[in-house]
Amino acid sequence: MSRAIIALGSNLDNPVQQVEAALQAIGKLPGVSLLARSSCYRTAPVGYADQPDFINAVCQVDSALAPQDLLAALLQLEQAFGRVRTFRNAPRVLDLDLLLVDGVCLATEFLTLPHPRMHERAFVMLPLAEMAPDTLVGGHGRAADIAAALDAAGVQRLP
């Protein structure tokens, strides 16, 4: 079993409900156990601004799957939830990103671990710092320290 961190996001079709349902679905994937999850966060869109705010969260799982197989399962979940990829940073029903797998460093056409931009994204690092503050993120340090150094404007923890 490997410990993995997954980011979740949605900004269409009741995004809080989409994220909550996705967390449940991740925990039901064969060979995957949901261990922990963050609160949900409302986040201003990044990249393409003319769209609704996002709801973001992260979760930690134990997985018997190889990292590539876990990502493939996550992409299948996105499709099952109705994700359609139209253009980069487009609005979406569900976005699942595999961020970290037990310190694995990997760079393929299909998957890069750790996720190459996670340490730059407050909408990832704030939930991660809440859930698992001592998580080490590549060569960038602890999640809590990275989150504290980021501009958190536009990222709001939901009650």
Structure description:
Helices cover 28% and strands 26% of the residues. With 159 residues, the protein is an alpha+beta fold. Strands 1, 2, 3, 4, 5 and 8 form a 6-stranded antiparallel beta sheet that branches. A two-stranded antiparallel sheet has the order 6-7. Helix 3 packs across helix 4. The model has no long low-confidence stretch (mean pLDDT 95).
Describe the structure in brief.
This protein is an alpha+beta fold.
Rounded Rg: 14 Å
From the N-terminal CA to the C-terminal CA, the straight-line distance is 32 Å
Give the number of DSSP strands: 8
Integer average pLDDT? 95
Structural class: alpha+beta
Index terms:
159 residues; 4 helices; two-stranded antiparallel sheet; 6-stranded antiparallel β-sheet; alpha+beta
